[in-house]
Amino acid sequence: MRIVLMGMPGVGKGTQAVRLRDALQVLHVSTGDILREAIQAGSPLGKRVREFLDSGSLVPDDLMAELITERLSRSDATRGFILDGFPRTAEQVSILDRVLETLTVKLDVVFLLSASEEEIVSRLSGRRICPGCGEVYHVDNRPSGSAGVCDQCGSALVQRPDDTRSVILDRLKVYKNQTLPVVEAYRERGLLQEIDGSGDPSTIFERLRTAVGQS
Ligand code: AP5
Ligand code: MG
Question: What percent of the chain has pLDDT over 70?
Answer without folding.
Answer: 100
